[in-house]
Structures are given as structure tokens and as C-alpha cells.
């Protein structure tokens, strides 16, 4: 048995692919680094974050006001319904942005073959443009610039 307790982490253990029976750690890492895996995973994570954020902001929103003669239970149900709708809208938005940005950045990184600071504004601009194109060319261009600046700042302070 391997010194890692038989979990295949240090090599020679069960499930590390050395005997041909299982997926090796390197193969699993390669799959997780694939753009077609990273983008949907980022979208799902973005949806989760957006849902939580939307639930919090939707529940403290002032759009839902008490109606005269309405019980607390009915008001709570209406508030919860509004928060749920707001949460779903935010989840879709965050998920879409996460998937588009991560996929774009991944393919830009693969194209250049390195993680560079210049990848962030390229991916940010493309993502911002794609997300805002339905609002017109001026909005898409402004969104491109905003996403490029924001993603560059984040990558500069956190990524490098």
C-alpha cells in the first residue's frame, strides 16, 4: 500500500491510473483545465453567487409594500416570491457573465499560450461587448471598455 493511505495521491496507490484502472490525477487536471469544462463550471458558480446575492437584495428591496388588510403571512409570501424572482434574474445574469468571461479568457490564454496581464482586458472587452450588444453599439462599446478595465484591475491586483 502507498504511504498516502491507498488514495493514489503519491503514486503507486489505487486509482492513480498506473495499472490502467482509473483516471490519473494528471488526466483529471487536464479535463478541469479544458475551456469547455471551465466555462460551464464558472457559469454554475456564477448562478449560485447570483442567486444568493439576488435573494438577499430582493428580500430587502422596498418594491414590496404591505397592503391594507393583508396578513403578515400573505405579505411574507409575496416578499418571498419577489425575492425568488429577483434571485433567479440575478442568477441568470451572473451565470451568463461568468461563463462568457471565463470561456473567453480561457481561449485567449490558450491562443497566446501563457497567462498574461493582457489576456484580461481582451476577454473583458469581448465579454462586455457580447453581453451588451442587444442594447446597441454604443452600449456594447461602453460595456467593452468597462469590463476590460474592471477585469484588468482585478487580474492585476489579485492574479499577478
UniProtKB/TrEMBL annotation:
The keyword Transferase does not apply. GO terms for biological process: protein insertion into mitochondrial inner membrane. It comes from the Eukaryota. Keywords: Membrane, Mitochondrion, Mitochondrion inner membrane, Protein transport, Translocation, Transmembrane, Transmembrane helix, Transport. It is a multi-pass membrane protein. GO terms for molecular function: mitochondrion targeting sequence binding; protein transmembrane transporter activity. GO terms for cellular component: TIM22 mitochondrial import inner membrane insertion complex. Belongs to the Tim17/Tim22/Tim23 family. Essential core component of the TIM22 complex, a complex that mediates the import and insertion of multi-pass transmembrane proteins into the mitochondrial inner membrane. In the TIM22 complex, it constitutes the voltage-activated and signal-gated channel. Forms a twin-pore translocase that uses the membrane potential as external driving force in 2 voltage-dependent steps. This is Mitochondrial import inner membrane translocase subunit TIM22. It comes from Thecamonas trahens ATCC 50062. The lineage of its organism: Eukaryota, Apusozoa, Apusomonadida, Apusomonadidae, Thecamonas.
Amino acid at each position: 500500500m502507498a504511504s498516502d493511505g491507498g488514495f493514489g495521491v503519491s503514486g503507486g496507490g489505487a486509482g492513480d491510473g498506473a495499472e490502467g484502472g482509473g483516471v490519473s490525477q494528471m488526466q483529471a487536471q487536464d479535463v478541469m483545465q479544458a475551456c469547455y469544462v471551465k466555462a460551464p463550471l464558472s457559469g454554475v458558480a456564477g448562478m449560485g453567487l447570483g442567486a444568493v446575492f439576488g435573494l438577499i437584495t430582493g428580500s430587502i428591496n422596498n418594491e414590496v409594500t404591505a397592503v391594507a388588510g393583508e396578513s403578515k403571512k400573505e405579505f411574507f409570501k409575496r416578499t418571498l416570491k419577489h425575492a425568488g424572482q429577483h434571485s433567479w434574474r440575478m442568477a441568470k445574469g451572473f451565470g451568463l457573465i461568468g461563463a462568457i468571461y471565463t470561456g473567453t479568457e480561457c481561449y485567449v490564454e490558450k491562443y497566446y499560450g501563457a497567462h498574461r496581464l493582457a489576456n484580461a482586458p481582451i476577454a473583458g472587452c469581448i465579454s462586455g461587448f457580447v453581453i451588451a450588444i442587444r442594447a446597441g453599439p454604443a452600449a456594447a462599446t461602453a460595456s467593452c471598455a468597462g469590463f476590460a478595465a474592471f477585469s484588468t484591475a482585478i487580474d492585476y491586483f489579485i492574479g499577478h
